[in-house]
Every structure is written in C-alpha cells, then in structure tokens.
Write a structure and sequence with these properties.
The protein has 230 residues and is an alpha/beta fold. The protein has a single domain, classed as 3-Layer(aba) Sandwich (Rossmann fold). The chain contains 6 helices and 9 strands. Helix 6 (196-203) links the parallel strand 8 (183-190) and strand 9. Helix 1 (16-38) packs across helix 2 (49-59).
Amino acid sequence: MKNTLPKEEWLVESDASAVAKKSYLIILRAAKEAIEENGVFRIVLAGGTTPERIYRMLAAAECDWQKWEIFLGDERCLPESSPERNSQIAMKAWLNDIEIPAENVHFIPSELGADLAAKNYAETIKSKMPFDLVLLGMGEDGHTASLFPGHMHNEEELVHGVHNAPKPPSDRVSLSTATLSNSEQVLIIITGAGKKASVKAWNEGEPLPIAKISAINMLTVILDSDASPA
C-alpha cells in the first residue's frame, strides 16, 4: 500500500481554451511516458464541453493509437446512439478520426440499465487498473463523473449504478471514488464562473464528491480565471 500522499498542483489558465490546451499537453506527455514504460496508455475520459475541446485537439495529434486504451468515468443511461452519451461525444470529436483498434475502446454499456451496466463494466476494468490518467470535470454542485452530493454508494463497488441523479437522465453509471483515484495521474479541469463557489467550498474543506478524489502519484487541477476563487 502506498504510504505517501500524491503530489498536488493547482494551475490557473486565462480561459477554457487555455485549460484545454494545457490539459492536452499533459495527456500527451503522460501517454508518452506510459507507453515508454509499459507499452500501453490507459486513459479514462470525462464528458463536458472542455473535454470535448481536448478530444478535438487529440484527433489532430500524431500518436501511437494502437497503444492507447480508452475508458469512461461515467455514462448516461440512454440509447447507445444518443448524442448525449459521453461515448458518442468522444467518438464524434476524436475516436472516429483516428486509427485505434475497436478492442482498445471500452465504453460503458449503459443501454443495459444502470445496475447491470455497472456490474458488466466492473468486470471490464478490474484487470486494467491502475489507470495511467483519469480526466475529470466538476459540476456547479461539486459533483464529478456521476458522483453527486448526498448520494450514498457501496464503497466496495468498482462501478456504481446511479439513480435519482439531480439532472436528467436520472439513471447513470459511474466509476467509484476509489476507482477514479486508482490512477497514476488524475487531471481535474474546471471552467466557468458558475464553478467558483464550489471550488471555494472544496478549498475550505467541504466534503464535496470532487474533494474525495485522489491519485497514486499526481493530482492536477486546472482552472480558468473565471472558476478560480483567488
């Protein structure tokens, strides 16, 4: 068991575009290091507007995509082809434009329903951890992935079936806090003035879902100036 706390860094960039560019560069560096060391780079993706910007940048990058493995931090329980699913956002912005083997892309089968999908995805990821990089965002209420304030989950689960989410759709699937934290590096990106209050609450020790996320080696938080409480 690791006895030391991960390194933690907080970076403030001028705007969402700068946050996306900085994140893109961090991801490329992490991929290069992981592939050199282990021959594979395992990344967990997030949903949201800024991650989508990152994915568009990655689509234009020259990488050894054969050695990348793609996972999702959470997914909405919607039909497989729904444009609101995180998988479809990643496919449209990035994965459709690169030559990555289909067997390297591991999406959450949330069309099966939250609980069955969570069970199936736990089987998918259990031999793939620790991840190399987990990308996360944060909602205005301090939630991350589909881990919401006030929700209780079985801490033994790798993946949770989520019900009664405070915004639609109410059923979702999310990696657990422990699973999201089981990564060499965790990269949290936060943009927009609507997030400032929750960032402040996080810094002041409020037990928000985002505040429970850790990492094995490095936890990096990148904010734009609008989201920064400083």
